Amino acid sequence: VQLVESGGGLVQPGGSLRLSCAASGFTFSTYYMSWVRQAPGKGLEWVSNIDSGGGSTNYPDSVKDRFTISRDNAKNTLYLQMNSLKPEDTALYYCARDKATMPPEYDYWGQGTQVTVSS
Q1: What is the C-alpha to C-alpha distance for residues 50 and 59, in angstroms, rounded to an integer?
Q2: β-strand 77-82 against 17-24: which pairing, if any?
Q3: On the CB side of 71, how many CA atoms lie within 13 Å of its CA?
Q4: Long-range contacts: 40-43, Cβ < 8 Å, 24+?
Q5: Where are the beta strands (DSSP E) in 13-112?
Q6: What is the pLDDT of residues 15-69, one digit of tens each?
Q7: Given this model, what pLDDT does residue 100 score?
Q8: 89 phi and psi angles, rounded to 5 deg
Q9: d(C-alpha 106, C-alpha 67), whole Å
Q10: Which residues make beta-bridge pairs with 99?
């Protein structure tokens, strides 16, 4: 299993970024997937998840209406569109394979992509 994130960078407050996560080594279309972030000096924070078909998505209040998770099962790729970015969104963003449990559990992680929101 391999998950490779890309698309991070430095963006001004109010700006947008789109993260991608290329998946390989497993049948991507049969798994829930999540985005999880870790801000400097803080713990992990779940950002979003999506079911295997892409028809059901979930977000915490901190990113709801600003972030959109999606997937392209034909391309084995997960996306996170981030709009109206705030300095508090600065973090290392990981994609993770979601075990679809409650509480959430993840069995594989990417290496992360850094998002920095600053003027």
Answers
A1: 9
A2: antiparallel
A3: 26
A4: 40/90, 40/91, 42/91
A5: 17-24, 32-38, 44-50, 57-58, 67-72, 77-82, 91-98, 106-109
A6: 999 999 999 999 999 999 999 999 999 999 999 999 999 999 999 999 999 999 9
A7: 86
A8: -85, -5
A9: 20
A10: none
What is the pLDDT averaged over residues 108-115? 97
Identity of residue 11: V
Q: Tokens 């993840």: give the residue.
A: 106
Q: Is 5 left (phi over 0), alpha (psi -120 to 50) or beta?
A: beta
**Residue 80 reports pLDDT greater than 90:** yes
Distance (Å, rounded) from C-alpha 113 to C-alpha 55? Answer: 25
Q: So what's the pLDDT on residue 102?
A: 80
How many whole angstroms separate alpha carbon 31 and alpha carbon 23? 11
Residue 11 predicted with pLDDT over 90: yes
Distance CA 64, CA 58 (A): 8
Cα radius of gyration (the chain): 13
Q: Mean pLDDT of all residues in the chain?
A: 96
